[in-house]
Amino acid sequence: MTSVAIRPEELRENVAQALGALARSVTLARGEVTVVVAAADYLQAMQTLRDAPACRFEQLIDLCGVDYSAYGDGAWEGLRYAVVVHLLSVGLNQRVRVRVFCPQDDMPVLPSVGGLWASALWFEREAFDLYGIVFDGHGDLRRILTDYGFIGHPFRKDFPLSGHVEMRYDQEQRRVVYEPVSIEPREITPRIIREENYGGLH
User: Residues with Cβ < 8 Å from 66, sequence gap 6 or more?
Assistant: First the structure.
């Protein structure tokens, strides 16, 4: 039987107390608790969130990469790559979000949490494939969505929308072949028409 969820303010205090100095910040916004931890403390903080009596986040329900290079219309000045994890405690009926930034933009690396939650292994492969984030300790880190010969990481903000190569089936060779992209890159800015006093607004 699942218990009644505690108030978000109480969850924030419980998480902050359990993590102590391992947390850079524990914030509450829109009823959701978000924890930010340093890469060096990531593994220990995640184990604490799983095992601490007031936390008991026994399920990892999501893990994804984020590229902040174009965040805030280019006003972002922090580290470029982050991993965001959502944890669930079924027994205590509570959720928490954890954000950790990769310490280097040129080679984004973080420890794998696959040893704490097996479900993380698939999500970490996706973040590696799409963002190029390497998870140290992952036993099978390889692409999961793109093709084996794919070059680059398509969710990075500097990856071209048209990609680098295109593929087609060649009748003579009787196989799929890769060729340079033949599409001319272009940017289309939508034309916005605003009516004066639309909906009574001035």
Answer: 81, 82, 83, 84, 131
pLDDT digits (tens, 9 = 90+) for 62-117: 999 999 998 888 788 899 999 999 999 999 999 999 999 999 999 999 999 999 99
Q: What is the pLDDT of residues 115-159, one digit of tens each?
A: 999 999 999 999 999 999 999 999 999 999 988 778 899 999 998
DSSP 103-133: S-SSS-EEE--TTT-TTHHHHHHHHHHHH--
pTM of the complete model? 0.83
What domains can be seen in the chain, in order of their start residue?
Answer: 8-146 (3.30.460.80)
The residues that bridge with 57 in the sheet, in sequence order, are: none
* Residues, the chain: 202
**How far is 114 from 63, CA to CA, in rounded Å?**
11
